[in-house]
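Is this the right way to post C-alpha cells for a design question? Let me know if I should format differently. Anyway, here goes:
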C-alpha cells in the first residue's frame, strides 16, 4: 500500500472504506466454550449420520407447501420491519425448481434491478430432507440472504474490489510507462475481472453465518426447531456435484461454527428481548 500514497490517497482510502462498509448488518451472538462444545458434538453426530431414504416427490412437495405457509408470513414481517425504508421487495415467491436435478435451495432475484425475489427448492432436495424443521431452517436461511441484503452488498463489493485492483494496476502501469518500461493495457481489464471475483467471495462465510442467525430466528418464530433443522447443513456431503459445480454443501460448507451460531441465537431468543442489544 505504501507505494500508492503519492497518487492514490483519496481514491484508495475512500474505496477501502467502502469495502469494509459493505459488511454484515447484524452482530452475531457471542459463542462461548459451552456452546462450542455442544456444536462440535452435534456436528460430529450429523456428519456420521447414515444416508437417508428418499421421500417421494409428492411427499417432498407437500412438505414444502406446509412449511412455506407457516414460514412465509413470519419471514415477510421480519423483512418488512428491517427493509421497508430501503424500499426492498419482501414479497418472496416461494416455489419449486423443476429443472435442476441436484439437491439445492437458493435465494435470488428473478427480475431486473434486484426485483422479484424468489426462493426455490429443487425436488431432489425436498426428497432428501427428513423433517419440516430442516425445510423451515433452510427456508429461513434463504430469507436471511434477502434480509441481510447479501446479493446487493456483494454487487457493491464486486464493483469496489474491481475499482481498487483496476486503480492499482493503472497506477503500476503509469509508473512503468513513466520509467520507460513496457506496460500491459490488458492487465487493467484482467484485474477488474479478478477484483470482481475476490469482492464477491470476501464476505461469503460471514454472510452465511448472518443468514444462519436470521434463519434461526425465523424458524423459531414460525414454531420450528432450528437446531434440528441446521443439522442438515452439517452432513458429510461432497462440495461439488458430478458436473463439477459447487453443490449445496459447497456453497454452504459444513462447519461446526454454523451450529454454534444457531445454538447461541436460540439461547439469545430464549433469554428474551432484553438480551437483544
Ligand atoms: Zn446460504
Amino acid at each position: 500500500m505504501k507505494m500508492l500514497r503519492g497518487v492514490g490517497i483519496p481514491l484508495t482510502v475512500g474505496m477501502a472504506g467502502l469495502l469494509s462498509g459493505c459488511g454484515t448488518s447484524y452482530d452475531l451472538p457471542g459463542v462461548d466454550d459451552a456452546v462450542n462444545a455442544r456444536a462440535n458434538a452435534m456436528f460430529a453426530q450429523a456428519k456420521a449420520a447414515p444416508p437417508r431414504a428418499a421421500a417421494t416427490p409428492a411427499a417432498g412437495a407437500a412438505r414444502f407447501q406446509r412449511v412455506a405457509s407457516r414460514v412465509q408470513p413470519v419471514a415477510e414481517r421480519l423483512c418488512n420491519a428491517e427493509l421497508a425504508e430501503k424500499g426492498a421487495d419482501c414479497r418472496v415467491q416461494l416455489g419449486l425448481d423443476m429443472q435442476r436435478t441436484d439437491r439445492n435451495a437458493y435465494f435470488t432475484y428473478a427480475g431486473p434491478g434486484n426485483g422479484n425475489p424468489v426462493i426455490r427448492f429443487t425436488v431432489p432436495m425436498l426428497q432428501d430432507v427428513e423433517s419440516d424443521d430442516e425445510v423451515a431452517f433452510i427456508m429461513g436461511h434463504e430469507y436471511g440472504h434477502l434480509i441481510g441484503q447479501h446479493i446487493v452488498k456483494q454487487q457493491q463489493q464486486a464493483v469496489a474490489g474491481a475499482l481498487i485492483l483496476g486503480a492499482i494496476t493503472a497506477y503500476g502501469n503509469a509508473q512503468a510507462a513513466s520509467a520507460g518500461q513496457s506496460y500491459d493495457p490488458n492487465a487493467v481489464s484482467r484485474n477488474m475481472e479478478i477484483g470482481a471475483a475476490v469482492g464477491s467471495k470476501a464476505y461469503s462465510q460471514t454472510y452465511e453465518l448472518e443468514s444462519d442467525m436470521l434463519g434461526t430466528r425465523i424458524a423459531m418464530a414460525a414454531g420450528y426447531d432450528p437446531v434440528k433443522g441446521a443439522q442438515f447443513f452439517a452432513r458429510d456431503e461432497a462440495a461439488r456435484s458430478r458436473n463439477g459445480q459447487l453443490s449445496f454443501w459447497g456453497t454452504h460448507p459444513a462447519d461446526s461454527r454454523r451450529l454454534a451460531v444457531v445454538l447461541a441465537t436460540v439461547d439469545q431468543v430464549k433469554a428474551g428481548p432484553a438480551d437483544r442489544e
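Format looks fine. Someone answered above. Worth noting: Residues 150-178 form the longest helix (29 residues). DSSP finds eleven helices and three strands in the chain.
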